Amino acid sequence: MDPVAFRLPFVGLPIYWYGVIVVICILVGCYVAAMEARRRGQNTDHIWNGVILVIIFGLIGARLYHVISSPQGLVRGFDYYLQHPVEILMIRQGGLGIFGAIAGGVLAVYIYARWQKLDFLTWVDIAAPGLALGQAIGRWGNFFNQELYGYPTTVPWGIPIDLRFRLPRFANLPETTRFHPTFLYESLWSVVSFVILMYLARRFGDRLLKGDLFLVYCVLYPLGRFLVEFQRPDAWMLGPMAAAQAISLLIMIAAVAILVYRHRRRPAAEAQPVDASVDG
Question: Per the domain annotation, does 27 fall within a domain?
Answer without folding.
Answer: yes
